[in-house]
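Hi U.,

Before I forget, here's the chain from the pilot set. I'm dumping it here mostly so it's searchable later in email.
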Amino acid sequence: MTIQGKHILIGITGGIAAYKICELIRMFKKSEANVKIAATPNALNFVTKLTLQNLSQNEVYIDEFTPKKWKPEHISLADEADIMIIAPATANTIGKMAQGIADNLLTSVACAFSKKIILAPAMNVNMWNNPSVQENLKILEKRGVEILPPESGFLACGYLGKGRLCSIDKIYNSTKEALNYSEKLKGKKVVITSGGTIEEIDPVRYISNYSSGKMGLALAKSAKQMGADVTLITTKDVEAPFEIIKVKSALDMQNAVFEEYETSDIIIMTAAVADYRVKNYSEQKMKKGDSDTITLELVKNPDILAELCKKRQDCRAGKSARNDVPLIIGFCAESENLLENAKAKITKKGCDYLIANDISRKDIGFGVNDNEVIILDKKGGITKLEKAPKPVIARKILEIISPVES
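Structure:
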């Protein structure tokens, strides 16, 4: 594993352990990483700006409103870094991050940071054990922040207990592991579908569902962060740093997915595809007329997931020019008997994994920011991911289904 050429942003807060970060900077620089420092004003009470500048060979950023370019400093620092480490992290900064408070440069960067954050707390043992601090840490951990707990020992305040900054080696190794994990899908093409398909009735009416596309987008962003070449096939308007293919109907989505099939390594069918479409689309707006009812004749849409799996079987049987075949992951939304229905579907459809979520709950699934899923694999394995923000769920899904070792 290497971190050569990686951009590492270290946030230093006002704790006595700030001086230990000098050794961490030295280790990163020795590994040929580019290191920048964002420090709180209080951090400079424990380690000087000049020391941090000489060790990092970069400017040390402290004030929020001194940008040298048009782009605000907290945004430019967040954009260019591959990872952010906050060490030592005080109870004050932990609380601000948990509540989204951005009242200095460091907390503003953390608020804008969309990649991996590693937090190494250090404080008095009684502060560490304070229920508010522990609750704030749980909030951050649930959002995907990696917490490196403090160690027990003699503290600078004279107490004996848990609160010492974890070893510098642990911070270094955790950073190295996280950065190399971001290359886990490097060289792989990942195709993801998202959103609910739209089946038109006439020029002004259609049949659809409540899918927001958030889960698929979260998976696409996570796959991109892991180094994949990502294509998102979606019914939603999306701006993202990967290929977007905008579709509308189930047939549109089927065509797009099959077109990408030959060059894909992983296909994740997150989209909520309408089971039926109108048999006879009306070119003109249908008039209401005098009748109190209207009858629409519907026909079944193709089962894209099942047909993908059949296409893969044909490849394995030598009926296709393609030698290798993609990993295929399906999603299913159920309102009852979640596990039983999911088991039946993975057997029937033939995919490698099936991810099931309960749409009867209002706090997860369609249109909300959180999810809770059960992951079934073709060998009969079952993994439950407890309720968490969709980006966190997405990352955990990719950890489980990824065929590439870090």
